[in-house]
Design goal:
Chain lengths: ~300, ~260
């Protein structure tokens, strides 16, 4: 049998398959290379970059929860210049679509990072306006349509690269925020970032995370993500990338039926580093079993009651 | 270099109440393993793996020994694994202890282990043969583990207990304070609870001994990608967040406990 073509096009960029490593879960593509090449992914979104190096939050930064995890990393990263110099060459050589995930404390910082990346081989810039773990910036813009629009507009003016705006689920109406990003020039949106959460140790009465609260991810948030992708996909014309607790090929297909043109995965790899291979293989089997030749044909094809 | 695979458990022993020793047959992993590295073990029904230090690696038999304590639901589930069952591990991970390539006659290293921090030092004792003194500290006589294994590996063993029910009454750091114990030592390799490690590193600073400590932290991926298992370290006056899984779990004591 002829191998299936799993390629999809998001924001005008062709991905050989629809599975992308989510920012913060795959570093700069090097850490799992002993098991399989990072080129198995359709694309990789790198660890969130800031203008200068960031140390991140105090540990502990992770807590296991029913069906998921809470994390409070707080954007630890070497800064955009070190990324361009030391990590981007590896990613360009070994990965398919390279997505640079960026975060700023001010609009000026977002612009500066985007300007620096504009001159590089990065394929897409993912605008993180949804990190729950930093005091300044991060989700501050992502929680209002006005804020999301303002950052998107500024970065749009600073770069010609395709722009993916990553949305937070910790809002009342995520579709309104997606529309604001679209109106100001976003080429696509990705969602959901983590859901704000907290755990407390009943013996010590201390929060389990060193930063008190953190972001929930993993299977527990999957239904929330599917619902939000569905809402957003019906509200915008630009492409939607779905993420949040995807753990199997069936989950990935479900997300695409809800309206995602591609998907990002992350937490599942902590338990099973081979999850990307299984998910990509499973999507191909789903296509064979259901006589599908073009994956984009299933995008948004849920049949609501 | 690490592997991820599914391997059979060939031996299981409860060596003390709630502390389990497993031998896993995994020749490709055993071949690569160095003392101080760890295995990241999958737990059925849980999102996260559990990092467990490698106690010993037998390259001839192609087996790995891990010893862990049941601390919560995840490790309790791990302890349900029986001989003949398969276990899914990523290993060997992280950097082990920096072992001297050769020892001058009469020179030796000190192994300082507290409680469930004792197991990763056994591999060091095995490599050092007769050139190691192991100070092993426990709460009480009933909690002593692996003392015979260290003796069989050729190490001189000094037991200490908090309640004095076996060996010296006192802590590992108390024993280390004794000149007759640390005199002539080339360095200290330590693993145990944080207060113990701080006391051991403090004692080493006073006497100008190098100390390497193995740290524990709540962990995610285990391979360096997710940045959750960090510890603070000071290098050249600057503070860094280092990954316990990839930059460690063994660190220079002075850098992580300045």
């Amino acid at each position: 049998m002829k191998p299936k073509d799993l390629s999809v096009t998001v924001a005008g960029v062709r991905f050989p398959n629809p599975v992308i490593a989510a920012s913060g879960t795959y570093g700069f593509g090097e850490d799992y290379a002993e098991l399989y090449p990072p080129g198995v992914f359709g694309g990789i979104s790198c660890k969130g970059l800031t203008l200068s190096e960031r140390a991140g939050n105090p540990p502990p930064r992770i807590a296991e929860t029913p069906g998921g995890i809470l994390n409070s990393v707080g954007l630890q990263n070497p800064g955009v210049d070190v990324f361009i110099e030391r990590h981007l060459p590896y990613m360009k050589k070994n990965c398919n679509v390279v997505i640079a995930n960026i975060s700023g404390e001010t609009i000026g910082e977002y612009k500066k990072i985007a300007e620096k990346l504009d001159e590089t081989g990065v394929d897409i810039i993912e605008l993180n306006i949804s990190c729950p773990n930093v005091k300044k910036g991060g989700a501050a813009w992502g929680v209002s349509a006005a804020g999301a629009g303002e950052v998107t507009k500024s970065v749009r003016a600073a770069t010609g690269k395709p722009l993916m705006v990553k949305l937070t689920p910790n809002v009342t109406d995520i579709a309104e925020i997606a529309r604001a990003a679209e109106a100001e020039g976003a080429d696509c949106v990705s969602l959901i970032n983590t859901v704000l959460g907290m755990r407390i140790d009943v013996k010590t009465r201390r929060p389990v995370l060193g930063n008190n609260a953190g972001g929930l991810s993993g299977g527990a948030v999957f239904p929330i993500a599917v619902r939000m992708v569905w809402q957003v996909a019906r509200s915008v014309k630009i492409d939607v990338v779905g993420m949040g607790g995807i753990s199997s090929a069936e989950d990935a297909v479900e997300m695409m039926l809800a309206g995602a043109k591609a998907v990002q995965i992350g937490t599942v790899m902590m338990g099973d580093p081979f999850a990307p291979l299984k998910i990509i293989g499973g999507i191909e089997r789903y296509m064979e079993e259901n006589g599908i030749d073009d994956l984009s044909g299933i995008v948004g094809k849920v049949k609501p009651w | 270099m690490y592997k991820c695979g599914v391997y059979p458990v060939t031996e299981k022993t409860e060596i003390s109440a709630g502390i389990y020793s497993y031998v896993i047959s995994c020749p490709d992993v055993a071949e690569l393993a160095k003392p101080g590295q760890f295995a990241h073990i999958k737990v059925d029904g849980f999102t996260l793996r559990r990092p467990v230090s490698i106690c010993d690696a037998d390259k001839e038999k192609g087996s790995l020994r891990v010893v862990f304590e049941v601390r919560g639901k995840g490790t309790a589930r791990l302890a349900d694994i029986n001989v003949g069952d398969k276990t899914d591990i990523i290993a060997p991970l992280g950097n082990g202890f920096t072992l001297p390539e050769s020892m001058a006659p009469g020179r030796r290293v000190i192994l300082a282990g507290g409680g469930i921090g004792v197991p990763p030092l056994l591999g060091v004792a095995r490599v050092m043969k007769g050139n190691a003194t192991a100070i092993l500290g426990f709460k009480s006589r009933e909690r002593i583990i692996l003392a015979e294994d260290f003796r069989r590996a050729g190490a001189e063993v000094i037991i200490c207990t908090d309640d004095g029910s076996a060996g010296v009454r006192g802590t590992v750091a108390d024993v280390l304070r004794d000149e007759s114990v640390k005199g002539g030592a080339d360095g200290v390799f330590a693993c145990g609870p944080e207060p113990m490690l701080k006391a051991v590193v403090g004692e080493c600073k006073k006497s100008g001994l190098n100390a390497e400590v193995s740290l524990e932290q709540r962990m995610g991926c285990g391979v360096g990608a997710c940045l959750v298992c960090v510890c603070r370290a000071v290098r050249g006056g600057e503070e860094f967040m280092l990954r316990v899984c990839k930059d460690g779990p063994v660190f220079n004591g002075r850098e992580v406990m300045p």
